[in-house]
Backbone:
């Protein structure tokens, strides 16, 4: 509020007043820019760190899921009986009839 009152009452015909206001404006913009750049860099670094951690965690979870699924599938397959029809084995006494069928 005070700066608006000061700017409205300043004698703008003098060169030093114009230079002072321009320099303070440039300094203010530069300060704001440096603050924004610093905040933006922190934002980028934190997001990059979080991205790396989430990517690593996702790969680890995927690997754990695949190994657990392989273990469950393997143990489950061992317990499933084979339902396919098996060819008759040649029994003694059947002779040529069993051999001709298969």
Residues:
């Amino acid at each position: 509020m005070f700066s608006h009152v000061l700017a409205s009452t300043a004698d703008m015909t003098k060169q030093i007043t114009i230079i002072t206001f321009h320099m303070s404006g440039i300094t203010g913009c530069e300060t704001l820019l440096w603050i924004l750049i610093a905040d933006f860099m922190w934002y980028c670094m934190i997001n990059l760190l979080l991205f790396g951690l989430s990517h690593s965690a996702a790969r680890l979870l995927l690997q754990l899921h695949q190994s657990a699924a392989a273990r469950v599938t393997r143990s489950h397959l061992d317990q499933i009986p084979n339902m396919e029809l098996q060819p008759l084995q040649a029994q003694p006494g059947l002779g040529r009839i069993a051999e001709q069928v298969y």
Summary: The chain has a mean pLDDT of 80. The two ends are 103 Å apart (CA to CA).
